[in-house]
Every structure is written in structure tokens, then in C-alpha cells.
Automatic annotation (TrEMBL):
It comes from the Bacteria. One of its GO terms (cellular component) is cytosol. The lineage of its organism: Bacteria, Pseudomonadati, Pseudomonadota, Gammaproteobacteria, Pseudomonadales. The active site is at residues 15, 91. It comes from Metapseudomonas resinovorans NBRC 106553. This is L-asparaginase I. InterPro entries: Asp/glu_Ase-like_sf, Asparaginase/glutaminase-like, Asparaginase/glutaminase_AS1, Asparaginase/glutaminase_AS2, Asparaginase_C, L-asparaginase_C, L-asparaginase_I, L-asparaginase_N. Residues 203-317 form the Asparaginase/glutaminase C-terminal domain. Substrate binds at residues 59, 91-92.
């Protein structure tokens, strides 16, 4: 882990830099000067370059196009010689972006740290500057290559973090999910940070008592290329609903990638434990193991967005690529 000496700061908007508007808090420019003042007051000695990524957004408006733009800006900065990246981002979808970038930037030789704030930098008692300055300090001390999330004094794995609280400063954590999977010996061809991606039609659907085949069919009819089905417990679902099973099986035959994750915060999908799990997975669902929703969605996006065929996506979805599935 090398200490970062030439930092690239990418500002995407979010609460950290918001200012009051007639409609409430809204993303605002001019954050570079505010950040420079804080770093100077802290006595931070560091070469750094700041870039706004237009349009500045509330992260509730995050889309796949924003992920692609962030990834492209980061790769370009690293190719210019920056040896570390700090990405300033809103908290609502911070964990989703950290997970997506973990897979979009596979093999990037420098660390990328995402952070944000629960309160704007101008508010009394805000966590904005402690989070920003803490992330900068961590990068100066040395962070391993890969994507990380820094919040409330903790450096978290980018593909393991989730937002658990909407008002407290310790909003993010790594869920205690069981992680056992085969590790990829190397980054698969066509999946590293140089790979061009395109948007993908993805959907997430939690199972619930009373879910009907028609609900799932309507979602699939929207042109979904990949569906993350959030199952109960260790991967169970309504295995006595033949119509539902038939809908999933037909979608898989059409080329839709189907993945199964657990709704439980500490869940882990396992095949063969319950008959209800086995029958559901037999429709073509690929177990997500202990991946979080954010990680599973980001991984599907990176694999399908790279143009991989259904069987290739299913193969690599079940293999640990960056620590998302294995310790």
C-alpha cells in the first residue's frame, strides 16, 4: 500500500456540498474552494486536482450513466498520473456506486475512496469535514488498490458496504454475511477497468407472501436482461407455485440472467438445503452467496454491460472477483 501523493478528487454532488435553495437542500458548485480552505487549515501537504462531474446531482437521481461517467473520469485521471482517487458522493446511493465501481474498475492499480456526509459541510456539527479529511488522511497513509468507502472513521470494502441508517453519522457498515466462494485466479478477459460498458436493463424484485406469476411476468416483459430475485432466508421461495416457476424458467430460456440473493441482513444463499430452495434455483437462478443487494446489482451491471453471453455472466457471477463473495 503506497501513500498517495497526487490525488484526484471527483465531486459528483450530494449532501456534502449542498446549499439551501427555495425548494430545499440542492447540489451546488464551488466546493473546491471550500475543500482547499479546510485542507490548508489542517496543514495537509498533498498535490491534488479537483474536478466537478456535471451535472451535480442528489444521489437519489443516480443512474447507470452516472456510474459509467464516474468510471471514465477516474480511469482518465489515473492514466494522467494520479495515484489515488477521492470521490465525493451523496449517501442515498453511495453503497450502490461503491459496489458498481468495484466491478467497473477491476484491476485499477490505485485506490479509490468514496465518501460523503449526512449533513452539508456548512451545517453546525456536520460530519462532512471529518469524513472528507479522514478519507484524505487514510489515502496519505496508504490504502490498497481497489474501491473503498470511508465513513464515520471506518474504511469499508466497496463491494460489501450498505447504508443501514438514514439519520445517524454511522450510517454505513459491512453486513455480517457469510462469504465462501471460489476466488478468480485473475481478472477475466474483457472485465478489467479498460473494458467499455453500456447500460443494461436490470431489475431487483423481493419475494413476499402472495407474489404472483403475473407480477414477475409483468416485470420481465419490460425487457429485463438481468433479474435479481431477493429470496427468503438461504434462498427459499414459493416452490409450490408452478406458474411462477414456469415464468422464471421461460425467462431463463430466453436468455435473461436470473440471480438469487437473500433478504436477510446476514443472509447467504445456499443450494440444496431446503426443497423450496432447490426447486426455485432449478429454474436457472444463480446463487449470489453472501453478496449484498448493492454488490449483486453492480456485478450484474458490470458483466452484462461488458457484452458477455448469458452463460459467461452466470459463470463469473458465482466467482469472487474483488472480495465481494470471499474473505
Amino acid at each position: 500500500m503506497n501513500a498517495v501523493k497526487n490525488l484526484f478528487v471527483l465531486y459528483t454532488g450530494g449532501t456534502i456540498g449542498m446549499l439551501q435553495s427555495a425548494c430545499g437542500l440542492a447540489p451546488a458548485g464551488g466546493f473546491e474552494a471550500r475543500m482547499r480552505e479546510q485542507l490548508d487549515a489542517q496543514g495537509t501537504v498533498l498535490d491534488w486536482c479537483f474536478q466537478e462531474l456535471p451535472p451535480l446531482i442528489d444521489s437519489a437521481n443516480m443512474r447507470q450513466a452516472n456510474w459509467l461517467a464516474m468510471g471514465a473520469a477516474i480511469v482518465e485521471a489515473v492514466e494522467r498520473g494520479h495515484d489515488g482517487v477521492l470521490l465525493l458522493h451523496g449517501t442515498d446511493t453511495l453503497a450502490y456506486s461503491a459496489a458498481a465501481l468495484s466491478f467497473l474498475l477491476l484491476g485499477l492499480p490505485v485506490p479509490v475512496v468514496l465518501t460523503g456526509a449526512m449533513l452539508p459541510a456548512g451545517n453546525e456539527g456536520s460530519d462532512a469535514w471529518p469524513n472528507l479529511l479522514g478519507a484524505v488522511t487514510a489515502l496519505q497513509q496508504g490504502v490498497a488498490p481497489g474501491v473503498h468507502l470511508y465513513f464515520n472513521g471506518q474504511l469499508l470494502h466497496g463491494a460489501r458496504a450498505s447504508k443501514l441508517r438514514s439519520e445517524a453519522f454511522d450510517a454505513f457498515a459491512e453486513l455480517p454475511r457469510r462469504r465462501e466462494a471460489e476466488r478468480a485466479a485473475k481478472i477475466p478477459a474483457g472485465l478489467d477497468y479498460r473494458t467499455r460498458r453500456q447500460p443494461v436493463n436490470l431489475a431487483v424484485l423481493p419475494l413476499f407472501p402472495g407474489i404472483a406469476a403475473g407480477h414477475v411476468q409483468a416485470l420481465l416483459d419490460s425487457g429485463v436482461q438481468g433479474l435479481l430475485l431477493e429470496c427468503y432466508g438461504s434462498g427459499t421461495g414459493p416452490a409450490d407455485d408452478q406458474a411462477l416457476l414456469d415464468v422464471l424458467r421461460a425467462a431463463h430460456r430466453r436468455g435473461v440472467v436470473l440471480a438469487a440473493s437473500s433478504q436477510c441482513p446476514a443472509g447467504h444463499v445456499q443450494a440444496g438445503v431446503y426443497a423450496a430452495s432447490s426447486q426455485l434455483l432449478a429454474t436457472g437462478l444463480v446463487p449470489a452467496g453472501g453478496m449484498t443487494r448493492e454488490a449483486a446489482l453492480g456485478k450484474l451491471f458490470a458483466l452484462l454491460g461488458a457484452g458477455m453471453r448469458q452463460e459467461e455472466v452466470e459463470q463469473w457471477f458465482g466467482v469472487d472477483l474483488c472480495g465481494e463473495m470471499a474473505d
